[in-house]
Amino acid sequence: MGQIQSDEGEEVRLADIQPLYIVFMRECPSGALHLHEFRKIFGIQSTSEDEAMFIETIFRSFDTNKDDVIDFMEFVAAVHLVLRGKLEDRLRWFFKVYDRDENGKLDKQEVKHIIKIICQLKRKTLEMTHHEICDRIFELIDENKDGQISLSEFLEGVQKDAWIMDILKLDINATGWFNENCGKTT
Length: 186
Description:
Blueprint: E1 3-5, E2 11-13, H1 14-27, H2 35-41, H3 49-62, H4 72-84, H5 87-98, E3 105-107, H6 108-122, H7 130-141, E4 148-150, H8 151-160, H9 162-168, H10 174-181
Antiparallel strand pairs: 1-2, 3-4
Helix pairs in contact: 5-8, 6-7, 8-9
């Protein structure tokens, strides 16, 4: 009793949630996490309109009841997914965030857009252009060569190619914030 089974088979005790609640309430005394607070927690200072829209998309993916704030339960679910979730669950979430038109497939425009933003957020310079990276990704994981990547192609392709995983993973710095703040519950 008092324990919840996580997706990774580890037990999450309710006692582990209490310090998280204290931190959440310290950061968000209203009980609601707003977009600007979300950016602070994940250490993201968007410097372009594309980055700002992307961060807003991530925020909205965690706002499951669509009320423009993340409540504590949504926050716990987000923390669990980002810090402890199964790789496949995180990849499904990445796909959902990347699928801008929500049609269940990624086209070349969506992939180029994502590559550009992820490189900006990671402050990463690549040896290939965004177009070359996009073409290589499609060459490697668009199995039926229809110019679109389905969820199943994405899941399989990203998991079998470390280069694609590195390029496409959302590397938001949640761990650093939690390590710094979850010890400060007083």
